Amino acid sequence: MYIGGVGSAGLHHLVWEILDNAVDEAMNGYAHSIAVRLHDDSSSVTIADDGRGIPIDKHASSNTSALEVIFTTLHAGGKFEHGTYKTAGGLHGVGASVVNALSRELVATVKRDGAAWEMQFKQGKPVGGLKKIGPARGTGTTVFFRPDSTIFPKIEFDSTTIRERLEVASYLHRGVKIIFDDDAAGDQQVFQHEEGISDYLRKIIGERAAKPVHDVPFTLSKENGLRLDVALQWTEATEEHLRSYVNGIPTGSGGTHENGLRAGIGKAVRNFIDTHNLSPKGVTLTADDIREGMIGVLSVFIAEPQFQGQTKDRLNNPEMLSAVDSLVRPAIEAWLNQNPTIAESIVARIILAARAREASRAAQAEVTRKSSPSGRLNLPGKLSDCTNPGADSSELFVVEGDSAGGSAKQGRDRARQAILPLRGKVLNTESASLAKVLENKELSDLVTAIGTGLGPNFDIARLRYGKIIILADADSDGNHIATLLLTFIYRHLPQLIAGGHVYLAQPPLYRIDIGKETYWALDDGQRNAILKQHGNGRSNPEITRFKGLGEMMPKVLWETTLNPRTRRLLRVEIADQIVTDRVINELMGKDASARFRFIMDRAEQAEELDV
Ligand code: TSJ
Asked: Which of 217, 263, 320, 365 has the lowest CB atom count within 10 Å?
């Protein structure tokens, strides 16, 4: 019996097993809601449904109840073995009896026929018999269990793992109400989705801030034979994103069901394009072009899934390829034919993908051509490189304007700080194609200096600086430029943000001279704080507002902004809150805080304390 080992996956599998039985009761139309409670010790769980209640009457022949059989006999009951039973549970081959055997204690409670019944188990063995514990209204089954710590080294469940699984289950089994009580956190959540995976698709598209190219998604649900649910929508996103599930289990590495879906989509779309003579001239459409920007959910329920791969998350049943393909292909073709407006938008999206691919290939060849034959980068002329590029401690300052670049060049630490001045406003890359981006001199210089390349050529090993630091004026123009640069990096070099390589410098806005002392303030708040703290009683404070970095003396720039021992940096992270393409335009000229999160970086200041 495969339970997934005694690690975290195996431990949580116990919950999924019990849960699946309750989901089955709901899918068979007898239960409407399922309640899952993670108790505050985090190592015991109660799962309840409002279904019929497991039968408790004793079979005349064996003198045992169905309930006892289910919990004490491996592969109990015909229910778990017959191929006709094609809903969630029972398909895993591991039943309640296995969970019971691996639990220090388990209590099953059944309400039916006006009474509540209870049976307790310890390490899989009944403790006493089936007891009537009193009258009860309604019907249902409740199972409490605590895993056996002599079997599982760690018996604490992870509430996030459970919550995410429950949420996905609520999408894959439309209509079922799933209530999760996380007692440890004192938190309750209710998951219920009448539209099933169409609702899931909408959520994924929202999370990814993808803009659909047609309004109504493609959906397909088959109940007889193979149970299959598909929801698809083409968007302006630059990649395909597909989530697939087998018997409610995520198949992150895909497999035959996913391949069947891809094959079906590819054939259907090609067929549609061919029969309507929509083939573009001069470009051939690849399978990737057809699925670029397509976001989808695929869920199948099958009797004997075979999983393979290191993480056992790839479906390997060969028959699934043709099974899914042959259901999906005609359905998509019919849908395209019946919805000409949608079909038109999708075909236009696909042709655009093909043309953009061709254009960016040409542009990338151009960038490669610019590199000298030795394979060394042809660095931009404006770059004042440091003597030690490639070191973790090396830094690239991307500076707004040539005059600020000059100050920074003189004020820097040559050994580890490189300066790249950029002139004027950078191209807004929010919706520009890769080809357009690479045509832009400022941005292609930046990419060359960084060294990693872009898109499919991106290679973090070729990163030339440990930190890429944007140095812009502390005013709204500077904010605008920083936003444009961050947008470019976010769209085309997101790995740099994820790797913690991207920073914003914090140049001061004010210089405050009080007597012999000089203070620097980043903003009005700091200025006021400095005046309050140091300004009273003594000689008149003299406040200078910097008009821009360009007028700052190299020494001052070093002291306030460049020197790792005294400066403050903001590390850029991608915020949880995702901004749509339209909102970014409104953001321009304000600040980027809605898309990016800035973390004060004081690591280097800690060094200062050691001196
Ligand atoms: F797996 C389990 F036993 F632990 C378990 C089963 C756990 C939970 C939370 C729920 C269930 C479960 C089982 N809920 N509902 C059922 N239904 C039946 O077992 C059942 C009830 C009535 C009849 C009938 O023919 O009248 C048949 C069945 C299989």
From this structure: 365
